[in-house]
Amino acid sequence: MAAITATTAKPKNRPRYWRGIVAVVAGLYFLGPLVVSVIFTVDVPNQGFTLSAYTGILGAAGFLSSLRLTLELAVATIVVVLLLLVPAMIAVRLSAPRLRTLIEIVCSLPLVVPAVALTAGIVSVLRWGPTTLARTPLYETILQIQNPSFPVVLVLAYVLMALPLAYRTLDAGLRALDLVTLVEAARNCGASPARAVLRVVLPNLRGALLNTAFLTLALVLGEYTVASILGFTPFAVWIVGIGGSQAQMSVAVSVLSLVLTWVLLLILAAAGRGPSFRTSSRKLKVKETS
Amino acid sequence: MTTASAATPSPAAADDLGGGAGTALAPPSAPSAPSMWRRKPGGWLAVLPLLLFIAVAFGLPALAIAIGAFTTTDDAPGGAQWTTGNLSLSVHGAYFTALMGSVKLSALTALLGVVLGLPLAQAVVTSRFRALREAVLAASGVLANFGGVPLAFAFVATLGNSGELTKLFHLGDHGWSLYTFSGLTLVYLYFLVPLMVLTITPALEGLRVQWREAAQNNGATARQYWLHVALPVLAPSLLGGFVLLFGSAFAAYATAAAMVGSSVPLITLQIADALSGNVLVGQGNVALALSLDMILIAGLVMAVYVPLQRRSARWLR
Q: Which residues, including other chains, have CB under 8 Å from residue B22's CB and lie 6 or more apart?
């Protein structure tokens, strides 16, 4: 066959073939279900082609409220993750390097506790409320964090679940900076420590901050485990809820959310490249030539 | 605070940027911090909120699991008591079947994820089209992090009982069902392969062109290059990837819950079931014992993963 003679004659041509096979198989496997899902949503049995699954989304009962709840949870989670992590990570690099290993271990701890196990723990902590804590002011707190209109307990769980990924993303961003020199330079120019961090360090971390925020958003948007077991109804739980009665719409929302998240991440990748584009492309070139 | 000041040997020595206790931890490009930062307790203050948060939000549930796994619930005959009954219950009967089901499913999907993810990652890394690379890596990020519900629904629409492909090819007549072990395997790979691509990409980028050229100059075929050069270098990363994928599949709940209900026995489904009150009187804490089992296995996974990660990082400089 032509393929075999070509490969024996010119070994360099060989990768093309396996690359093609890999691309086709991966394309079929990863795009197939999405494309078929779209067909599934517009081709309703006994009705033929219809877009009702998409047009009905906005008016569906519970859609807007669950989406709003999820977005609020996402914003709160992102703010808490950044407020907790960024100062700590900058501080361990500037003034307390001995704590760096501790922070790394602490941020990796949630990896050891799967979401279901964490939820089991949370459930039993919340049960302490009515039993052991009933006469203490803590009882009020426990009730308050379960308020269905804004369950703080979910934010706590999501922050924990986001910590490992957020830590690694921010760490990668900080690694690319010479933080000590940057701050020293700013201080020598007369900036106060706070100003040096706010006006010099944070703008340089823009890409990593955006990335962290985005990955956290994706995590919260898709989170089902904790919310469903604790009995709240954010976006993902709502999708599963309508799956039984409105299969078409649940699939439509699923596909839309996946594609939208992907497009957002692409935009973010392009935006995050902005200021450091030149250096990164130069680095790539050095890698290739060296 | 005492630690912070102890880290500065003396004001005079602190001027020497090469010295200081912090150098051991800091990367070579970042010498130890200047003394003006060291003397202040600011470092501790900035770290404190994070530690407090973890202590409360993580510590309390962890404590609840640790205590609950070894006690009976209040509604048990005789009230709450210390017991090992929960733990022994959690490794017997239906719970043990579920635990084994989870381990088997995770091991199989992790192995397949590594085997399938490696060529895909290699194709992506060596691609000449930068836009394609970024699109695939971004998509991998979404699929690996977004969680299982949308994936489950996409597969139900495609290969479920009334899915498009099932109807088109009458797969049901050939014994196909998505709601089985093999069906779940197929769906799990949808987020595990992207996770593998994300994990292995840095290692593949670390494979130097010179190594391949050196191998070729010595007369090695592509096969020999992969067997004797690339794969040994990649081995820790591949093993680390396997372990990470295992942990991810093991902890997954949403996909299975949204898709199969409880037709496939998995430990995560059993925990959720037990939490919603589906247990005998007095066995309410079996969910916590099962959680403890999961944490032990996940801890084991991390204990294997971390050293592997360190080892593979050596090649990536």
A: A97, A98, B7, B32, B33
Q: How far is CA B295 from the centre of its chain?
A: 12
**Could you report the per-residue pLDDT of B150-193, keeping only the tens digit for each?**
888 888 888 877 777 877 887 777 777 778 888 889 889 988 99
CATH 1.10.10.10 fits A63-271, yes or no: no
Cite the residue boundaries of each domain of chain B with CATH code 1.10.3720.10: 85-316
Number of CB atoms found within 10 A of residue A173's CB: 21
Which residues does chain B have with pLDDT short of 50?
Answer: 1-39
Record the tokens describing residue A133, joined without a space.
């804590």
The tokens describing B104, both together, are: 């088997």
Q: Cβ contacts (< 8 Å) between B123 and chain A: which residues? A: 18-19, 22-23, 26
Asked whether the beta carbons of residue B49 and residue A115 sit closer than 8 angstroms, the reply is no
Tell me the pTM.
0.79
Sketch the domain layout of chain A as residue ranges.
63-271
- CA distance to partner chain A, nearest, from residue B310 (Å): 14
The complex scores an ipTM of 0.79
Could you say which residues from 59 to 78 on chain B have a Cβ atom under 8 Å away from some Cβ of chain A? 60-65, 68, 74
- For the segment B38-65, what is each residue's pLDDT rounded down to a tens digit? 445 666 788 888 999 999 888 888 888 8
Topology, domain B85-316: MetI-like fold (1.10.3720)
pLDDT in tens, B278-287: 666 566 778 8
